[in-house]
Amino acid sequence: MNWIKSGYVVIDAQEQILTKMGRLSFLRYISIVGAAFSFIGSGFMFYLGSESTIKTVLAYFKKSPTTEKYVHLTEVESSLVSIIEAVDLFLFAFVILIFSFGIIRIFVLMGDGSDKTHCCDADR
Question: What is the DSSP letter of 117?
């Protein structure tokens, strides 16, 4: 009974859990697939935002409507709406980029438990 109170059972249970998790630790590398496609999608959204911005600026200076769906708006209003849509694409692309880097950081770089540093250490 004295060995139960000293915590040997708790340590033994933790070691058993860690060894079982160690056998499946290679599965964390599957998250690289999701992170890679998120990164690719983010790059594609940056491209679409850039293309939309260039088209809007060129359409504004050529005095032509940006798209057919904004024919009821003035030139300035349609350009403003198109720029806001482009900024929206950039913001979503940035969020997806942060998401993909977070997935890599959490599951791949810090997933094995061997790294004892805390993710928010300012000293390192």
Answer: S
Each residue's pLDDT, cut to its tens digit, for the chain (124 residues) gives 444 555 555 556 666 666 666 666 777 778 888 899 999 999 999 999 999 999 989 888 887 766 677 778 888 888 888 899 999 999 999 999 999 999 888 887 875 555 455 555 555 5
Segments in 62-114 forming alpha helices (H): 75-103
Residue 68 placed within a domain: yes
For the chain, how many structural domains are there in total?
1
Q: Is residue 96 part of a domain?
A: yes
User: Helix or strand or coil: residue 77?
Assistant: helix
The predicted model scores a pTM of 0.65
Domain span including residue 95: 29-109
In a domain, 123, yes or no: no
> 75 near 65, Cβ under 8 Å?
yes
64 DSSP assignment: -
Residue type at 37? F
